[in-house]
Amino acid sequence: MGIWRSVSVLFLGFLLLNLSVARFVVEKNSFRVISPDSIKGTHDSAIGNFGIPQYGGSMAGTVVYPKENRKGCQGFDESGISFKSKPGALPSFVLVDRGDCFFALKVWNAQNAGASAVLVADNIEEALITMDTPEEDRQSAKYIENITIPSALIEKSFGEKLKKALSSDEMVNVNLDWREAVPHPDDRVEYELWTNSNDECGFKCDMLMEFVKDFKGAAQILEKGGYTQFTPHYITWYCPQAFTISKQCKSQCINHGRYCAPDPEQDFSRGYEGKDVVLENLRQLCVFRVANETKKPWVWWDYVTDFQIRCPMKEKKYNKDCAENVIKSLGLDLKSIEKCMGDSNADSDNPVLKEEQDAQVGKGTRGDVTILPTLVVNNRQYRGKLEKGAVLKAICAGFEETTEPAVCLSGEVETNECLNNNGGCWQDKAANITACKDTFRGRVCECPLVDGVQFKGDGYSNCQASGPGRCKVNNGGCWHETRDGHSYSACLDVASVFGDSQCKCPLGFKGDGFKSCEDTDECKEKKACQCSECSCKNTWGSYNCSCSGDLLYIRDHDTCISKRGTEVKSAWAAVWVILLGLAMAAGGAYMVYKYRLRSYMDSEIRAIMAQYMPLDSQGEVANHVSDDRA
User: Fold this and answer.
1) How many Å apart are CA 536 and CA 13, to the nearest integer?
2) pLDDT digits over 229-287, tens only?
3) With CB atoms counted within 10 Å of each terminal CB, which end of the chain scores lower, N or C?
4) Residue 315: CB partners within 8 Å, gap ≥ 6?
5) 556-573 b/e with 16+ CB inside 10 Å = b?
6) What angle do the packed helices 334-341 and 274-293 form, to 10 degrees?
7) Cα–Cα distance between 514 and 505 in angstroms, integer?
8) How many CB atoms lie within 10 A of CB 465?
C-alpha cells in the first residue's frame, strides 16, 4: 500500500467520504483534426499527468493505429514496429486503446518505438479523466521519469471515428494545441505548489524533492523580478470525532485530531509519526509567511532545499532542532515562526492549517486538490512531469506573448525544433548563421542580429545583412575572393538610393555581386592602353600597360612620353623653382633692409637738427648765458 493510500480503516473511511463530494477538474488541451473532412473539427482531450506537455505551443502530426499490440502494453520493437518519422514527414501520433496496463506504460512503449505523442482512446463512454502515474510502483517509476513525449486521453466515440478513417486508408492529420491550456489574465503569473515535507514516501517524494532543488534558481529569479507570485501549500486531513482518542489519531494528528498526515513508514510501532510531518509542514508554511512579511518570499525555497539536505529522515535528523538550525542560518526570525505555528496540543483550530484545509477545496476553474504533488498555474492544475523545464514552460505560457521574462527564452524551455532541418528557416551554413530561434512556444523564423548587424528578410528563404558594418559579417552576403595576396569584395558598406545596402562588383570585375564577379579583360575590351606606343597585359582585377622603347606610360592620360624629355623638364623645373625662391628671399631682405635703414636715418637726422634749431614739437631752449646787468 502506498503512503498516500489509507493507512488504516479510519483514514479509508474519511477519504471515501471526502472524495464522494470532491469536484475534480480535468485539465484539457485542444485536439484539432485537419483532415479528412469527415471528422474535421476541434475535440477535447485530457492531458496526461506524466511526460512533458508543450504548454504555450502546439504540435502537428499524423495519427497511426498499430496493426498489432493495439493496447500498447508490450514493447513495439518486439513486433518490429517503428513509428519514427522519415525526414521531411510529420511526426507520428500513436493511437492506442485503454486497458490491461498502466497509461504510462503505453506511452513509454510508444516513445521507445519513435512516437512523438500518444493518444489513448477510452474503452467506455464516460467523461474524460486524467491519466495519472501508478501509485507507489517501483518498477513503473524507472520508466515514468524518462517519459518525455506528451499524451492525452480521448473519448471512446471520437477514438472510433479516428479508427474508421484510418481503416479506410485516409491520412489523419491532427494538431495538439496547449496555447490556451494556461490562461494569462495579467502581466504576472500566480502559481502554487501543493507539496509535503515527508521524504520517505517513495518515488513521488523523491521526484518532488529533486524538482524543488532543480527549480529553486528559476523560481527565485521570477519572484525577485516581480514576474510571479508563488505560494506553497500542504495537504492535511482530519480525524473523525469518534476516533480522536485512538492510537492512530494521536500519532498522526495534532490539535486533537484536526490536522493529520499518514505515518511516514506506515508502521505505528517505529520511526517517525504522522504528526511529525504535520508539524514540519506547519513550520514550512510559517517560514514562508515570515519571509513574505520581510518582502523576501523566495527564502522559502532556500529553507526547503536546505532542510531536505541537512535534516533527512534516513539520518534521524528530521526534528525541531535541525529545523531551527536551518532557520537561524538563513537569518529568519525564529520567534516569529514559533508564534505563527501556535500550540499543537491545543483543542482548537490552528489558523494556518485551517486555511490550508479550506484551500484544498476547488474554486473557480480549479478543481479540488487530490493529487500530491500538484502544481497550479493561474488557477489551472498543471498536468505532466514535475520537471524544471516542463514546469517553467507551463509558467511561461501564463504570460501574454512578447511579455514573458528573459528566463522564458532560455535553453531550459526551448522546443529544439531548430535541430531538425533548421526548423525550415533561412540559414547560412558557411557563416553559421540561422534565422531559426527556439522558444517555449515553438520555433520562430526571424532574421538575426549578429555582431550589431541586423539581417532583414522574411526569415524563411531570405535574410540579408543591412546597415553599417554589414560587410564585417560574412562579407554582407556578397561575393569576395583573394588571389596572390590581393582581395576584392562586392560588398558596399553604404546604403543605396533605395535605402538598402547592396552588392556591386568592384572596378575591374563584372557579375551579379552576390554569387560571382568575373575579372574583366580591359585589354581585350580595349578599355585601357589605347595609345599607339602602348602594350597591354591583363591581370586579375586590374591590368598593366607598358610603352615601347625609352618611353614612360602615364595611366591618367593613357599615353606614353619620353623618359629623357621628362628628365630635362624635371631639371629645368627644379632650376626655376630655385631661382624663384632666391628672388623671393632677396626681395624680402631688401624690404626689411629698406625699412630698418629709413627708420634709422630719420632718427639720426632729427637728432642733429634738434641741436641747431628748435623743432615745432619742442619747447624753447632755456638760455644759460649769465646776465651782467647791475
Assistant:
1) 107
2) 899 999 888 888 888 888 888 889 999 999 998 888 777 778 899 999 999 999 999 99
3) C
4) none
5) eeebbeeeeeeeeeeeee
6) 130
7) 8
8) 29
What percent of the chain shows pLDDT beyond 70? 79
Burial 134-166 (b: 16+ CB within 10 A, else e): bebbeebbebbbebebbbbbbbeebbebbbebb
Which of these ranges, 209-218, 303-312, 465-474, has the smallest mean pLDDT?
Answer: 465-474
The rounded distance, in Å, linking the Cα atoms of 475 and 598 is 73
How far is the C-alpha of 95 from the C-alpha of 173, rounded, in Å?
Answer: 13
Written as one letter, the residue type at 267 is D
Return the H-helix or E-strand segment holding 580.
Answer: helix 563-612
Q: How far apart are CA 503 and CA 478, in angstroms?
A: 6
CA distance 176 to 154: 12
Q: Are 110 and 83 in contact (CB under 8 A)?
A: yes
d(CA 375, CA 191): 7
Sign of CA dihedral 183, 188, 189, 190: negative
Residue identified by cell 592620360 is 557
Distance CA 252, CA 276 (A): 8
136-184: per-residue pLDDT in tens?
A: 566 666 777 788 888 888 888 888 999 998 888 888 888 877 655 555 5
As given in the structure block, the three cell numbers for residue 70 are 493495439
Comparing 49-58, 445-454, 455-464, 595-604, which segment has the lowest mean pLDDT? Answer: 49-58
The size of the chain, in residues, is 630
In 484-592, DSSP assigns E strands to: 486-489, 491-495, 501-503, 509-510, 518-519, 534-539, 542-547, 551-554, 559-562
* Torsion sign, CA atoms 215, 221, 227, 228: positive
All three cell numbers of 224, joined, read: 525577485
Instruction: At 240, list the grid cell.
Output: 473523525
326, containing H or E segment: helix 320-329
Pick the residue with more confidence: 332 or 266? 332
Long-range CB contacts (within 8 A, 24+) of 486-491: 486/540, 486/541, 488/517, 488/541, 490/514, 490/517
What's the longest Cα–Cα distance across the chain?
170
Q: What is the pLDDT of residue 553?
A: 75
Task: Give the CA distances from residue 133 to residues 119, 253, 376, 604, in Å, rounded to whole numbers and listed in that order.
Answer: 16, 28, 18, 126
Kindly state the DSSP code that residue 30 receives in the 8-state scheme.
E
Contact assessment for residue 301 and residue 219, using Cβ atoms and an 8 Å cutoff: yes
> pTM value?
0.55
73 CB-contact burial (10 Å; exposed 0-12 / middle 13-18 / buried 19+): middle
Confidence of residue 396 (pLDDT cuts 50, 70, 90): confident
State how beta strands 117-121 and 92-97 pair. Answer: parallel
